[in-house]
Design a protein that fits this description.
This protein is mainly beta. Helices cover about 10% and strands about 45% of the residues. The protein has a domain of about 80 residues: Immunoglobulin-like. It is built from one helix and seven strands. Strands 1-2-7-6 form a four-stranded antiparallel sheet, with no helix packed on it. The longest helix has 11 residues. InterPro entries: A-crystallin/Hsp20_dom, HSP20-like_chaperone, Small_HSP.
Length: about 140
């Protein structure tokens, strides 16, 4: 974030060097990206192979669905941390919950042959291509 130019008002009567709330919101929300699942999709002659990084998400908390030509990957992760002192008094308690969801439009595949595996935080989904592409053309008459 260093060395970024931030527009300022050059108003003669503006004695405030910056707008705290505007800059705070800009800086705070800039760190969050809508796409938190890093994904690669490879295409071969026979299949599509999708690899998605889901580190720390247990396998049982990952759902994969394919419906109407759209592949959906969802994952959830929850942690509960507690620290106690020598006397058993609670010193710190933290809870966090995160969820991710990505969708991909991938058509003309054999739905019944989709396979998925999860190892070392990487989800690998293999989607064999249909033998022939399904044409979705329709001539539209002009009135």
């Amino acid at each position: 974030m260093a060395n970024n130019m931030i527009p300022r008002r050059s108003d003669l009567f503006d004695m405030t060097p910056f707008n705290f709330f505007e800059d705070f919101g800009r800086n705070f929300f800039e760190g969050f990206k809508g796409n938190m699942v890093k994904t690669d999709i490879h295409e071969t002659d026979k299949e599509y192979v999708l690899e998605a990084e889901l580190p720390g998400i247990p396998k049982e908390n990952i759902q994969i669905n394919y419906e109407n030509g759209v592949l959906t990957i969802e994952g959830q992760h929850q942690t509960d941390t507690q620290s106690e002192d020598d006397k058993g008094n609670l010193v710190r308690s933290e809870r966090s919950f995160s969820s991710v969801r990505r969708q991909f439009a991938i058509r003309d595949i054999r739905e019944e042959e989709i396979k998925a595996e999860y190892k070392d935080g990487i989800l690998k989904v293999t989607m064999p291509k249909a033998a022939e592409k399904l044409e979705h053309k329709k001539a539209i008459p002009i009135e």
